[in-house]
Fold:
Amino acid sequence: MGTLAPNAVPLTTVLSDTVAAARAAGRDDLVGRLETVAVRVRDPRHRIVVTGQLGQGKSRFVNALLGLDVCRVGDDTTTVLPLQLSYGAQQRAFLVLTAPGADETRVEIPFDQLGEVDQRSALAQGRQVVRIEAELPNQLLADGVVLIDTPGVGGHGNACAAGVLGIAAAADAVLVLSDASTELTAPELTFLRQIRELCPTVAVLLTKTDLYPHWHQVLEADRAHLTRAEADVALIPVSALLRAHALRLQDAQLGAESGFGVLFGFLRDRVVARDHAATRHAVARELSSAAEHLALALGSELVTLRDPALGSAAVNELQSARAAAEDLQRRTASWQQTLADGITDLVGDVDHDLRERLRGVARTGQEWIDEHDPGRHWGAIAEWLTGAVDTALGDNLLLTHRRAELLAERIAGHFAEVGAVDLPDVHAGMDDERQLASSGSLADLEPDIGFTSKVLVGMRGSYGGVLMVGLATTFAGLAMLNPISLGAGLIVGGKAYRDDKSARLARRRVEGNAEVRRFLDDVAFQASKDTKDRLHRIHRALRDHFAGVAERSLRSIDASLRAAQDAATMAATHRAERTVVLERQLTAVAELRRYADSMQAELGRADGTVSG
Structure:
């Protein structure tokens, strides 16, 4: 392999040599992991999620970022499904569909129908639409950027924020859009806090600066809000309209005023550079691990070949290796039990947390309805309820994420004697765009009766009072209709109207509470299913990761056992030749290990410089 230096030899070359060495050693498990990292090096992808509340200009921003009219824009809700945009030599679009008990399938659709597809599309043939994937020739996408335009969160009947959080969990960066018409609201800050816990690279984009002359004041107010919230995120003002004009007119001044230059700098420094460093970290870890596993078998065989007279030492080596293998086998059963118990506890705790949060929302809503007229404020109730449910589901998702990471760390403790074990990425298990489907909706309450009906209610009540008192006063020689009977009619009619009003208010409150409970039951039913599916994915991810760690360790010990046994029985005529081959292979593996150590040291220095 020669003397290796991290900056002198391309990563792809080193990985190819390491894959060849692992394949020659019969270690297909190492080959698979190394090839996965090699694909990441050759084809880096940067997933950037664009999200925000309704009407913040997300689709227009994506069009301006790409310099193409891809997403449909308008005053109404235009994005109803996640749209993933990636590079392709030709314009193509696909629906990604799913059905219970089936894998995802892709159905090609006409590219010009991107903005017309929704969950009820006939193209889905009754299956659930997970997202839309579009491929198109574009320089930004060709550089490895994958843009995901999400439906707006917040607002009754719109996408659930938990679904967007699920997508953001596996993203390299999230751009949260908020227009310059007003300051960041409390729901936006809550959503931003949740996003920040799941994705390390987040920016708030202040959009539509061309429409609002006071955007500088809004920018300073937003900066103050982020400071008070201790949200360490970038705040960048942009104008999609100025960007579009700059591209059309080739005007550099307009391009600078649009703010997109600052945004591209943020993506270059905080996304591309960070992801490049993360890729090099992953390569260094895999190279170091592969070198360690390969050296174990080679070293055991070489020691036996160099000193065949030490039979007892060889026996001790074999016994130690066998004991280590048996001990690792016991630890394998132990970590699997820890995983099973941890997932069981996690399912119960997450489900209890979800139900407790939704019960709190139900109690708050019932108290408010019991003190107000839901008929007059039903729109505000629906808006608040949707936001409260979004927050509850989002915080429940964050609880799942934190607990899953703690479980992964606890399982990794079982492998302490094997050496440093990489923790699995639980973000992939969190990613679930299917949660974007609406879980339910609030039906409208029966409208209040009109003015004419109210008058008729009063007249119907007053009729009895006029008749009763009028008949009594005729014995005093008065007419049926007299001031006393008319006054009595007004009093009785007023009471009848108030009683009817109270009865109608009580009926609306009962209907409102029942509708809120029904809505929350629908949410709990769907959210419980989504949560269990998410935990099953996390379970499989943890199981596969640590099973791979155990398998690689066991295979390395078994290989060393076989190598030592073969060397002990090898004919003397072949010992010298085999020793030369092993020494050459061990020298190459040692160079590989030094290369990985140099990479890690270089990346450590770079991280220290950045943090400093």
Summary: The chain has 16 helices and nine strands. The beta strands are 46-52, 83-87, 92-98, 105-109, 128-136, 145-149, 173-179, 202-207, 234-237. The mean pLDDT is 76. The radius of gyration is 34 Å.
